Amino acid sequence: MSDVIDPKSVPTRTLKSGAKIPVVGLGTFGSDAVTGDQIAAAVLDAASVGYRHFDCASVYGNEHLIGPSLTKIMAGGVPRSDLWVTSKVWNDQHKEVEKACEKSLRDLQLDYLDLYLVHWPFPNFHPPGCAPDYHNPDAKAYIHEEYMATWGQMERLQERGLVRAIGTSNVTIPKLKLILRDARIKPEANEMEMHPHFQQKELFEFVTDNGLVPIGYSPIGSPGRPERDRTPEDTVDMEDPVIVRIAERLGVHPAIVCLKWGIQRGEVVIPFSVKRRNYLANLQAAVSAPITDAEMQELAAIDKNCRLIKGQVFLWKEGQTWEALWDVDGKITPP
Ligand SMILES: NC(=O)c1ccc[n+]([C@@H]2O[C@H](COP(=O)([O-])OP(=O)(O)OC[C@H]3O[C@@H](n4cnc5c(N)ncnc54)[C@H](OP(=O)(O)O)[C@@H]3O)[C@@H](O)[C@H]2O)c1
């Protein structure tokens, strides 16, 4: 296996605007365990092995450390136009989106973002490292009018040229239907949890049918996720016998099978790693031999509907369960 991948050989997906996003990006959320300095070092080194796409967010608390890495990457000869940088507005900034974006730009040392997302459709936040049953007394339900007021600020950012495209994250079909109905500038991408044990087929199809690019987070099943995002019912993609068997046939780690499944299905995947061996292998997944159609069908059949990032810290009422965040009966959960 080569230890450098030509960035031009990495496939891209095209947004409605024509912009091209590389199908593998480096995640930058340290799950409250990996330090910002380690992640910033991984960003710099990942560019040297061929990464051009970085998935950032203000809440990850490390954009000010990643910024100098991006500056060094560009000083080393990679033009800004070859990079793809995503960031996201955090839940406590829904009323100050322009200010939040300007701060991310300063921290990332950029003058525009390729993609800016509303991180969650709820204005509810939690302190870093909080307990799984943390409840914010000011938490609220999804209020469509309030979301659209936030979206209006996203649209202004695009008109100001500070962001090239805007998108959603952690939305459901009923929410996305309303957003698509009412947005003046439509979302061009939706970031959502997707891995073989949580395929979200219906939402994935709704997203692609409406011309949005689906970006899959936790694409290998987030083995390092924070304690608050673990329950005894969670399944482990990388231990699934079908995934293990395909990995053995290809002579790769099961993580790579998860990534290949996502890419071949039509997603952009954003695996996190700070280990060169792993992030290199993850990018390699986009350019090495594909898994077969028969294997894709086998993988389609191992869906366990196992959501890992349940978001329970965003619940707004005592006694609710996390399903309330995800509109499981097809309707937006009322306040
Ligand atoms: N929009 C949202 O709300 C949202 C939510 C969650 C995540 N995200 C984004 O999605 C990114 C990825 O999600 P994630 O971090 O939850 O999960 P993930 O990418 O599924 O899993 C990351 C974990 O897998 C390990 N790993 C990575 N590559 C590997 C390989 N080739 N072989 C073996 N182990 C490997 C990493 O450990 P090592 O470091 O040891 O390799 C790390 O512990 C985040 O960093 C973030 O950018 C977005």
Task: Describe what you observe in this structure.
The protein has about 325 residues and is of the alpha/beta class. The chain has one domain (about 10-325): NADP-dependent oxidoreductase domain (TIM Barrel, Alpha-Beta Barrel). It contains 10 helices and 10 strands. The strands form 2 sheets. An 8-stranded parallel sheet has the order 3-4-5-6-7-8-9-10. A two-stranded antiparallel sheet has the order 1-2. α6 (about 200-210) links the parallel β8 (about 190-195) and β9 (about 215). α1 packs parallel to α2 (about 65-75), α2 packs across α3 (about 95-110) and α7 crosses α8. The chain starts with 11 loop residues before the first strand and ends in a 35-residue tail after the last helix. NADP nicotinamide-adenine-dinucleotide phosphate (NAP) binds near residues 55, 223, 270, 273 and 278. NADP nicotinamide-adenine-dinucleotide phosphate binds near residues 217, 224 and 282.
